[in-house]
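On clarity, I found the account of how folds are encoded harder to follow than it need be. An entry of this sort, consisting of the sequence and the corresponding backbone structure tokens, reads as follows:
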Amino acid sequence: MEKLKEITTQPLQLNLGNSTFVTYDQIYQLIFGFKESRMAKTASTPGRRFMKLAGMTASIAGKTLSNSIKNLTADEEQKNTARSKLFQDIGVQIADTLGEMKGAVMKVGQIASQYKDVFPPEVAKAIAKLQRQAPAMPFKEIKAQVEKELGKPLQQLFQQFDEQPFAAASIGQVHKATLPNGQQVVVKVQYPGVDEACGSDLKQVRLALRMMGVLKIDRKLQDQLFKEIQHSLDNELNYEIEAQNLEIARTFHESLDSKIVIPQVFHEYSSRHILTLSQEMGESIETASTWPLETRNALGRRLFRAIGQEIFYLKRFHCDPHPGNFAFREDGSVIVYDYGGVKTLSTEVIEHFKELIHAAREKNIPVIEQQLEALHSLTETGKFPTELYEQWLEVLMRPLVTNYDFAENSAHHDGMELLKPSLKYWDVFKPSPDTLMVNRTISGQYWNLIHLKVHDDLSDIFEELVPSRS
């Protein structure tokens, strides 16, 4: 009771973990201020979106405060159990709320679900479902958006336009169509008003995550991470930028490998919110995984080489490795969709990655730490044991330098075992804006090779991309 009395009589702070503090007065104002503001009329869609997100944030604040008060006299085991249950409940609430809302807010949730190491497992598991396909928007709204953007009635623009979408995602959906000259195309249509909601959506999601104390990184790194997400969202919401990315990638790959297929842009039928592309059909990764090993290996090698060439040669790379962004043909062709997510790397950062690879090959731990520090991925040198470094190097390099069975996935399984002795040193490493998208892309493509059931020696391509020192 004395503890409870302190809370009600002093402006104490609630410790949400990871150096995140919120005053009880702030939580009170958020909860009751929200209840009061609900009475206001909000005619605009942005207003309704804000209220829905603010409601989620207020609910999270209330649950967090209630959990903190209930556990004032609990022992450590009871606190951990209650905290895990809280995270499960709130993770489901975030997923359900964001899943109902199209646009930037759902995209933020999808991005968050891809960075599972930033969140507790209970939250990561709940929001992982946001990566699933979104429900479609009614055709009359899609038709109105196309006509508004391209300035003509739909029947004048296209010989034929499918009412049912070919695919639906967080910020837009894709319809098959035919141009007046008979060209088969796909039309990517951005949902109306998505770009306007982007800024407020992102702020509300971040506030909700901070209120429940689930961001396992310090405030400065949070700022950098959300700045990266904001930049990624801004690019994805501008289809004119994606059109440029597509043309650059198409020109680049045409000169290197004709079996890397990038859709062609039709500018006359495109705008900031509409993107019309050549219809490049292929099979899903699930279907391709049933093909003969020789074909699967050819596809895996082509995919691995193409992404490596974009990173190390072009220095602009496709950074959304979701399997749905790739399709495959039995002749060994790989089709790459969705260049909305592209990361540009500086020459300096590329050189640090190359030096890191050389040091990994040579098992030169001091240079590895030097390069990790230069990439802002290390908090302290000399703390992580040399023996563990060497064991991790063997695991991480194994798929790149041996005849590796990706379906067996031994590196992943051995890595999980190495986590146990490594966890107490894990605060030595941190995600960084320089490495975040590279790590996401490499790990995502590793899992794509697993899905393709590749069993091959990729060391020649690895050597081709980053030649060893003579």
